[in-house]
Amino acid sequence: MLKIALAGNPNSGKTTLFNALTGSKQYVGNWPGVTVEKKEGRIKGQKEVRLIDLPGIYSLSPYTLEEVVSRNYLLDEKPDAIINIVDGSNLERNLYLTTQIEELGIPMIVAINMMDVVNKNGDKIDCSKLSKSLGCPVIPISAMKGEGISDLIEQAVSVANTDKTTDLSKRFSTQVENVLSEIQKQIPNEIEEKQRRWYAVKLFERDEKVIQQIKKSTKIEALVNEMEMAMEDDSESIITNERYQYITSLIQNCYQKKSKSKISTSDKIDRVVTNRFLALPIFAVIMFFVYYISITTIGDLVTVFTNDTLFGAWISETLAAWMETIGVSTWLIGLTVDGIVGGVGAVLGFVPQMFILFAMLAILEECGYMARVAFIMDRIFRKFGLSGKSFIPMLIGTGCGIPGIMASRTIENESDRRMTIMTTTFMPCGAKMPIVALIAGALFGGAWWVAPSAYFIGVAAVIISGLILKKTKMFAGKPAPFVMELPTYHVPTLGSVLRSMWERGSSFIKKAGTIILLSSVLIWFLSSFGMVDGSLQMVENMDESILAVIGGWIAPIFAPLGFGAWQSAVATIMGLVAKEEVVGVFGVLYGVSGDALELVEEGSYGELGAISQHFTMLSAYSFLVFNLLCAPCFAAIGAIKREMNNAKWTWFAVAYQCVFAYVMAFMVFQFGSMFYGTFGVGTIIAFLLLAALVYLLLRPYKKRSSSRAEVNDDLCYQKG
Q1: pLDDT tens digit string along 574-627?
Q2: How far apart are alpha carbons 510 and 603 in whole angstroms?
Q3: Which of 111, 119, 217, 309 fits a 20 to 30 Å CA distance from 568?
Q4: Residue 131: inside a domain
Q5: CATH number at residue 33
Q6: Residue 661's pLDDT band (boundaries 50, 70, 90)?
Q7: Rounded to the nearest 10 degrees, what angle do helices 265-273 and 279-291 cross at?
Q8: Residue 147 gets which letter from DSSP?
Q9: Is the domain of 30 the same as that of 131?
Q10: 40 and 121 share a domain?
Q11: Beta-bridge mates of residue 87
């Protein structure tokens, strides 16, 4: 079976091409870190060809995890061919990676992507001339529109069946080529002939990983030192300059860029949306409307129909009536209607809101705006000890916290990466949005500000945590520099938006059919049965159930936060299993079958409106804050464990999240109660906590004593 690797820059459209070639549904994003591990698939119509999608990278220098993954695969696995996807609208910058890949000695085909954008801009790329200069096939394509894909597949298979490589001995200046030739003579014989140039270049650059693999002779070091003195530059910069000089000579005869007297449309838009003073207000307004439309207005209308009509009148009532007609036992009717339909239906009822939210976020990502947000947030986060790279996992985490946690792998600095993992799940993921919608609808009458406030609570928690943690010895140090290529603005395609929406929302539905179903059955059983006269019997009053007893033990912990009823305590604890289960618990306990977002007034507690007997608006918001900020679900905690690769750090992360959430919710409730005329011991404690928080925020930064390894890592990163 042939193995073809797909390599390119993060913004080259690599993942879109992978989906087009294989029919896969990988998530597509406009920032690095979306694909941190390699993905595999089979090319459509070519059963004997396996395509490997490598992480998006800018070079083969081992400074980031993506670069290490891609480089190790290409060196160790030696695929039969490489498809190097290049963004045609940024040809010169993208060809830098191409010059590195061709040195590996693996047959390569270059796919010039986004040719539709190139043509629209009035630019011209002569692919035949470029192919002749590079010594490999060059195919123009548009991955998003599916143009040129069949030709690319045909050429890629043809190239993979050959062992043709290009003579690279005259790519750089004579001086550098002579030195590289001498270095190649010093490389051990076990290195294949076709890879010797790549190893020679890396030894010239003093690549630490290659030096560890191949013992660097004193003669090689003398040659490099001599060249550095002659060219008055360090070895790595010499190679970088040589590459760009080669690229310039390469494209001058095959690339014609239309001279523009006016700035591009993207630049005009960026002058506004990335403006130093307007950028943040614009971002806040955009996110406000995203959550307002998806949760409060359009999303709310669809959800009300789903809850009231679909799961209410059509399913629950019809199913209950039919089961009564055929003489089904009361307990089985309760299990089916209240347990399964009530619990699962309460969660699935919010799917329309989630899909609208994910679709709107996908539009912002696909058009290129979210990449600008990372750039905007870098300026802000840097002041609080984080870089824009930390915001990328948080953006990804708005769909699900697990891929957000995994995206932290792109952060080189270990302390910054750990801090990002600890704070990423503060952002409201899709599983938390039903909680937001439930509280907003059932206790705030659908107030427009509740849903958007949830997003900005997450952002505020990240910033506050960044300041607090960065001032400790564990996380001290300057944030890593953030360099990112901003994609050109373009109109999103319907297919890409729907794919992204489904990719984020499908896990939500899968949980409803597995974890939430089982949890709902368990909650129904524990809330329907209790110990009566020493035996387990079905009870009519939930306050006499097993669940009420268990919840009664837990409830005092949350009483200072304003929600001391056992029902809310159970819902909060079950939220650690899956955040959707917070709503699922209320669905089972209050028999949600309709009116899911309506507050029942005039003292009548029917359907979900019964929740209002256990909450005030203040305690409901405190409940919301705690569940937004506390430790994520078990699956996300498992992801934290894998990424931390350390049990102590995992427990520290979970403990920090829970304590931080508790303190924030405590202050919200206690200070809020003060405005309602209540002042007591809790208020005094809240003031003390506030004073401690202010101290942690304002105290000076700690100096971190770096180990030699850490210093080397920092130096390596600065070179990159």
Answers
A1: 888 888 888 888 878 765 433 333 433 333 333 445 566 778 889 999 999 999
A2: 37
A3: 309
A4: yes
A5: 3.40.50.300
A6: very high
A7: 90
A8: B
A9: yes
A10: yes
A11: 113
pLDDT band of residue 513 (cuts 50, 70, 90) is low
Q: Are residues 197 and 236 in the same domain?
A: yes
Token pair for 51: 């395509």
Q: How far is CA 611 from the centre of its chain?
A: 34
Count of the separate structural domains present in the chain: 2
**582 neighbors 596 (Cβ within 8 angstroms):** no
Sheet holding 138-140, edge to edge: 39-42, 49-53, 2-8, 81-87, 108-113, 138-140
200: exposed, middle or buried (C-beta count within 10 Å: 0-12, 13-18, 19+)? buried
Tokens of 461: 């928690």
Integer-rounded Cα Rg, in Å, for the chain is: 29
Asked if residue 197 and residue 131 are part of one domain, the reply reads no
- With beta carbons less than 8 A apart as the criterion, state whether 389 and 377 touch: no
- As a residue count, the chain comes to 720
- Model pTM score: 0.71
Q: What distances in angstroms separate CA 375 from CA 279, 368, 372, 380, 602, one per listed residue?
A: 10, 12, 5, 9, 50
Residues 130, 52 within the same domain = yes
* Residue 398 identity: T
Are 586 and 570 in contact, with CB atoms under 8 Å apart?
A: no
- Residue 233: give the domain boundaries: 174-256
Domain boundary among 221, 256, 291: 256
Q: Identify whether residues 35 and 139 lie together within a single domain.
A: yes
Both 145 and 220 in one domain: the answer is no
**Domain termination site, one of 240, 256, 272:** 256
Query: Rounded CA gap, 16 and 39, in Å?
Result: 13
Tokens 């033990």 belong to: 553
Contact 368, 488 (CB under 8 A): yes
Query: Quick check: 107 and 160 in contact, CB under 8 A?
Result: yes
402-430 pLDDT, tens digit per residue, is 878 877 876 777 888 888 899 999 988 88
Q: Residue 193 domain-assigned?
A: yes
Q: Are residues 70 and 117 in the same domain?
A: yes
The answer to whether the CB of 416 falls within 8 A of the CB of 609 is no
* Of 348 and 537, more confident: 537
